[in-house]
Amino acid sequence: MPTASEKQAKSDKLRVAAYLARLEPDARRALKQLRGILRTAAPAATDAWSYGIPALRLDGKIFVWYAAWKQHVSLYPMRASLLRPFATALEGYETSKGTIRFPLSRPLPATLIKRLVKARVAELRAERS
C-alpha cells in the first residue's frame, strides 16, 4: 500500500504534467527545457506542486519553483545572497526579489541555470547542517 508521501509524489507529478499540457507551445517547450536543466543539476530532486506552480523537492523540502508566462519562464526562489555572485552572468535577464525571468525569445542559459541550482542545493543543505 502506498505511503502518504508516495501518494503526494504521484499527485504532484500529475499536476505538473497537467500544468505543462495547458501551456501554449512556445511556453511549454521552454518550460520543459528549463525543467530538464533543473533535473540535470539536481538529479535526486523529485517533482512537487506548490503555490499553484511546479517545483522540485530535494531531501524532503521544496527548494526551487518554476513557471511559464506569456513572454518568459521564471525560476524561484533565488535569494539576493545567492544571486550576488552571479550578477555579471545575470545581466540582460530581468530579476526581482527572488525571481529570475528568462524570455521565451532567447535560448535558456543552461550552464548558468545549472550553476544557480547547484548553489541553491548547497544553500539548502547548509541550512540543514
**What pattern of helices and strands is seen along the backbone?**
HHEEEEHHEEH
Largest sheet: 6 strands, antiparallel
Structural class of the secondary structure composition?
Answer: alpha+beta
Shape: globular
- Give the spatial strand order of the biggest sheet: 1-2-3-4-6-5
- The N- to C-terminal Cα distance equals 33 Å
Q: Note the total helix count.
A: 5
Quote the beta fraction: 25-35%
Number of DSSP E strands: 6
Mean pLDDT: 92
Give the radius of gyration. 15 Å
Low-confidence stretches: none
Kindly state the percentage of residues in helix: 40-55%
What does this structure look like?
The structure is a single chain. This protein is of the alpha+beta class. 49% of the residues lie in helices and 27% in strands. The protein is built from five helices and six strands, in the order H-H-E-E-E-E-H-H-E-E-H. The protein has helices at 4-22, 25-41, 80-83, 87-90, 110-128; strands at residues 46-50, 53-58, 61-68, 72-78, 94-96, 98-103. A six-stranded antiparallel sheet has the order 1-2-3-4-6-5. Helix 2 crosses helix 5 (110-128). The longest helix has 19 residues, at 4-22. It is globular. The mean pLDDT is 92.
